[in-house]
Amino acid sequence: MDPSDLIALTTTVNRAWGLSLRSLTPFQAQGYANRSLVAQDDQQGRFLLRISRQKDRAGVEDEARLLVHLNAHGIPIALPRPTLDGGYALAWPAGPLLLMPFLPGVEAQPDGPTVTAIGTVMGRLATLPWPDDFVVEHGLGLSYCRQWIAEASSGPGLDAEQTGFLQQQCEDLHSLLAHDLPHSLVHGDLFPDNTLFEGGRLIAILDWDEACLGPRILDPAMAVLGFAWDGDHANLDRVRAMARSYQKVCPWETQEVEAFHDWVRFSCLGLICWHLRSLRSKPRPRQWIRVAELIEHLRRLERGPRLDWPT
User: Are residues 17 and 129 in the same domain?
Assistant: First the structure.
């Protein structure tokens, strides 16, 4: 960020949130979608300032109010700090701003205790009441996937074989995902880098950018790819540990158990297409490497064996 822009941003944040920031520095771990800065106030401590690149101000405001709802129901999150005018999101040319406490902790290292904690919190999330003013619907559908595969096929990233494989996955999954499954609040991007642990305890789930009202099977299916994938295959011990802790809080219906493997496949396809969309605006070599990894995961899932969700 240009020094003059950084000065202007610091001044804006101080005025909006009543702070006396000494510095704003880039956060070491930057995701694909947003940008984060560490804000240091000598009197009030450290904060994380997020510059959103996917949502407008109203969308970030909705996300913040969802976080307030989750906090009230005991879901571990980083509670955003309201501005002096009572809102949460602040307009900024590079994207709306959201200020949160800088929490201690480390990214999850997938193991038995970690996946047990993740399974429990996913189950709790699936049982929460929907906030009245949160109406974001699940948007990661096969039509979305088809669109971004088609657009990516005209660029340099995907070869003809990969494009054909992904298009065939869309067709194969079309009938497999036709069931009307139970809906709930879902995080939508539950990966280790969106969690914080301290002393073996889950202290926060971060980055609720993709949160929505959608099939509750989506979070566990996505979490397999983040918390239970070892090299080129799913770690069945971790899947079982995750499922056991989830089922204690939120037992699944038979149709969800039967659809689990297909939804893990769909989650993998959806992740690939999310990255393809992101790469259209800003090509990143490491992100193309991630796309290639996910395509190989999807091939493995297509070949089988099918993953079971223990009940």
Answer: no
